[in-house]
Amino acid sequence: MRFSTEKLTKFLSRNFYISPRLIAPQKRFYADLGMNSLEFLEVVAYLENTYGITLPDSEIDKVQTVEELAALMEANLVAVHA
Q1: Predicted structure pTM score
Q2: How many other CB atoms sit within 10 Å of the CB of residue 63?
Q3: Are 40 and 51 in contact (CB under 8 A)?
């Protein structure tokens, strides 16, 4: 199973009213997209529920950009479905 950044972009756009044009791989959740830590955890919970996985807290704490979250999701999806 592959991680769909499109699904993440749609979720961010729909739930946090962020223009899809502003959501790019290098964008930081807090500084660039204006999210707070609670909103970021909502994104993580959505992804975990959607894909049926649990992301390690130690790894989530390191995530700053959309690209980093996508890479973490991809790595965990590969590990679960291998």
Answers
A1: 0.89
A2: 20
A3: no
